[in-house]
Amino acid sequence: MFLYRSQIAACKFNNRFLKELLNLALLHPIKPKGIAMILQLAEETFLKANDLSMHDLESVLSSLLRHRLDYADLFFQRVYSESWLLEDHIIKSTNLSIEEGVGVRAVMQEKTGFAYSEDIHLSALRKAARAAKTIARRGGSAKTTPSVSMSAMPRLYEPLNPLMTLSEQEKVELLHRVDAAARAQDPRVTQVIANLSGMYEIVLVRASDGVYAADVRPLVRLNVSVVVEDKGAREKGYFGGGQRSGYEFFLQNHLVTDYAKAAVDEALINLSAVDAPAGLKPVVLGAGWPAVLLHEAVGHGLEGDFIRKKTSAFADKFGQRVASSVCTIVDDGTLSLRRGSLSIDDEGTPTQKTVLIENGILTGCMLDKQNAQLMKQASTGNGRRESYAHLPIPRMTNTYLLPGDYSAEEIIGSIQDGIYIENMAGGQVDITSGKFVFSTSKAYLIEHGKITAPIKDATLIGNGPEALMKISMVGNQLEFDAGVGICGKDGQSVPVGVGQPMIKIDEMTVGGTRS
Amino acid sequence: MKELVQLERSIKKALAAAKKFGATSADVASAIEDGFNVIVREGEVETLEYHRGRSLGITVYFGQRLASATTTDIQPEKIEAIVRSVCERAKFTEEDPCAGLAEPELMARELPDLDLYHPWEITPEMAVQEAIACEKRAKQCDQRIVNSEGVSVTSVRQFSVYGNTHGFIGAVPSTLHSISCSLIAEQKGQMERDYSYAVARDSAGLIGGFDYIADQAAERTIQRLGSRKLSTQKVPVLFASEVARGLWYHLLSAISGEQLYRHSTFLLDHLEKPIFPSFVQVYEDPYLPKGLGSAAFDHEGVATRKQHFIEGGVLRHYLLNSYTARKLGMQTTANAGGAHNLFVSHQGVDLRDLIKKMGKGLLVTELIGQGVKLVTGDYSRGAVGFWVEDGEIQFPVSEITIAGNLKDMFAHIVAIGKDRDPYDAIQTGSVLIEEMMIAGM
User: Cβ separation of B381 and A2 shorter than 8 Å?
Assistant: First the structure.
């Protein structure tokens, strides 16, 4: 299980942007009329275009349930995505991708049968269903519940096609502006690579439990990567951001300049970096993307499949203290516009805000339908899949730590000899032993209560159930990442978000080279 | 094979459409995959997945401008529509003097059969039975093995075809079969996980089969129990073969044309310079029968060749495709898509000899995290392994990091073993490095 910044990119959101983002928030729920429109679009895309009727879907589900199954579902997906690449001052290439298919799943207790098809016609559906149901014997008695479409759905993002929100010429100009902005920052900038990408996803779920739901999900991203050279030394820097909207998001205010500046700053600061220390040190993590720590230290270990199978270091710790009392951690798929947000998960369950750790006590985990049923709980709307060709499994959405009482000055000022991590590349965890790592991309020494020399990139290692006990101070300013996180699990990648205020960990192993 | 015929038809259709919409040249790669994966856990099937996927990718060139597209719909009428739109999009990209197909005279002329296609006569039901027996055997090895992440069996047939407007078209049918076993052991409330796997083109190449991976997974998992941290110190580090291949992977990345022309590698301007001790040879052999990385032509249709990247410790070749070669003013090394079956020379010693030679230090068996920065060579990763003293393994260690710089690590390789892990396209034994910084307590 790991998390990283997509391709080249990442991180911290300026408070200024966060506020604007919240102003943009469209918190009015989507009314039945809106839901009907989304459903109609999905039906036209998947059913009408392939001469399928609702009755056909029900007949496929019924044929599945003639075997001894608890549950079956059909997941239709079409994804249009594009990317534009600028390098060496020119728009070097563009890629367009169109992927479409249907996944057919059959579930009986812990068992799952699965098949998919890129053809979406009745005979392909039936063929996939025949394969999926071989997981169970004949003679099923379960019935397909008549479809119930949702009456209300939170409006987290607009059902639009981001690829159409700027003209091709405007996309090209946007990238050239990024290039110019990055080169204008400093004469030592020798290479600039900028990447603009957008995704338009339409999904339709029909499940034997009556779920009949659709979603239209936009997602955009802009990354910039730079190389700086000075007297024979070279360094790289990255920054990027994005959200579930159209590309016009990138046109506001000084966002292009800010992304370019952040990338160049990271590279220049690393040019003068000294060797990182090796050994146990107090560590301060900056607000925003450094919440990779939470994602790795507790997030994956609280995914319901690992809890049910007792393969997670947290499996037997519910109701117990697993973090210091200043830690309250939630997973929340309902944040407006965020990269990890979803109106419904890939099983058609509305997402929610799930409290994982409350004042240090382990209270909840993230569930999909299958694990929820086996654990006699309700799905928390965390059933996600990379695509129609993958099985849904419990995954995070946006995982974050709620703010505490301290200012940045108080936190930094409390440390005599430690390190401050402003930005990270990514992290990884072994959920069974609980050991996790993250790698810095912009970090400094803290000496006598002050941030001093920048240090070279290093990996930090800790143990999930122990590391959070050592969080002694939590800052008062919550920030989210800028919207480039990609989380990998079981060979499946999904977009996620993370957030936290600044935090202090009393002791962690810093993997530098200087003793 | 009908799959290859179907793919060739789609490719010709796509190339013809590209010409029709004004492209000066184009290339297309298309593949169909067909197979299954079963996972058994706690004596029962957990998942049974059938895979039958397909994809087609096309790049069109209008002089020095290009655009590309990928799609899962390879029906001829849909292909024409997507080619039309990708040709439209090429109007918005800009002239790149280095863009284009590889030179026509470099196209592979002979396509020898590399013996990559060996369907496994195993049904999902049979695979389930084998996997159940494997898990049972593994769990019986030791009562401390309390849980399992499952035994997995995968068998896939892949048909891939590449063609371009030079008239080159090459078809490759291949198979890939793998088995793996992942276990969890517990002692004094501490859980540890480890695994074993085998992968091969021909099921006969899964040496030792299910019994072997069951025993190896059990042994590895049990050996991890009771792990401790180490104190922070500088010591020799021995990369076991399964993690040593990561070092060679970093070498390949550091000498790849993309990193070179972007000035993003610590091995910039190192051609013909020594970067390893003189006993180190690294070469690729694309023509190995049944090889996991075997290919008679690269992703641009260029004929592959047996070649040394490192000879006598000296960097002899970069890893280039036609684009990166032009950027660097050189010739492609037929490595579009990467290296093919990389071999690292050894000194005839096995892992036990290397442990003895190291005397005191760290044997690393697993690495986590992304802490490798190619532009500077700085290396810092989480590690799991064993503490070695007096030439013997003493106890398992975890929750530590190892750090250094790849340039120094490469220059200070002390010895390379013959204990090659057969299940990877990078064939290397364990690698002993003179000294690295360990951070722990």
Answer: no
Give me the mean pLDDT over the A478-485 stretch: 96
At position A506, the amino acid (one-letter code) is D
- Count of Cβ atoms closer than 10 Å to residue A358 Cβ: 16
DSSP per residue, A25-46: ---SPBPHHHHHHHHHHHIIII
Tokens 């500046």 locate to A261
Q: Which of B40, B56, B93 to mutate to test the interface with A (most CBs of A within 10 A)?
A: B93
Helices marked H in A315-449 — which ranges? 369-374, 408-413
User: For residue A507, how many other CB atoms are within 10 A of its CB?
Assistant: 16
CA atoms within 13 A on the CB side of B207: 4
Instruction: Express each pLDDT in A46-71 by its tens digit.
Output: 999 999 999 999 999 999 999 999 99
Cβ-nearest to A435 among B44, B91, B399: B399
**Over the stretch A8-48, which tens digit does the pLDDT of each residue have?**
322 222 223 333 333 333 334 556 678 889 999 999 999 99
Determine whether the interchain pair B370/A4 forms a contact, defined as Cβ–Cβ distance below 8 Å: yes
- Tell how many helices (H) and how many strands (E) occur in chain B: 9, 18
Q: What single-letter amino acid sits at B410?
A: F
Picking from B78, B368, B97, the residue whose alpha carbon sits closest to that of residue A90 is B97
pTM of the predicted structure, to 2 decimals: 0.94
Phi, psi of B284 (to 5 degrees): -115, 145
- The predicted-structure confidence for B99-109, as pLDDT tens digits, reads as follows 999 999 999 99
Where do the DSSP E strands lie in A208-324?
212-230, 233-243, 278-285
Which is nearest to B143 in space by CA: B225, B227, B209, B198? B225
Interface residue of A96, A281, A303 to substitute, partner B, most B CBs within 10 Å: A96
Look up the ipTM and state it. 0.95
**Is A236 in contact with B96 (Cβ distance < 8 A)?**
no
Residues of chain A with Cβ-Cβ distance to B93 below 8 Å are 90-94
Condensed to tens digits (0 to 9), the pLDDT of residues A259-293 reads 999 999 999 999 999 999 999 999 999 999 999 99
CA dist B75 and A422 (Å) reads 50
Rounded Cα distance, B314 and A147, in Å: 68
**Residue pairs spanning A and B at CB distance below 8 A:** 246
> From the list A92, A459, A512, which residue is nearest B93 (CB)?
A92
Determine the Cα–Cα distance for residues A84 and A222; give it in Å rounded to an integer: 10
Under DSSP, the state recorded for B86 is H
CB contact under 8 A, A511 and B439: yes
Nearest to B288 by CA among B121, B116, B138: B116
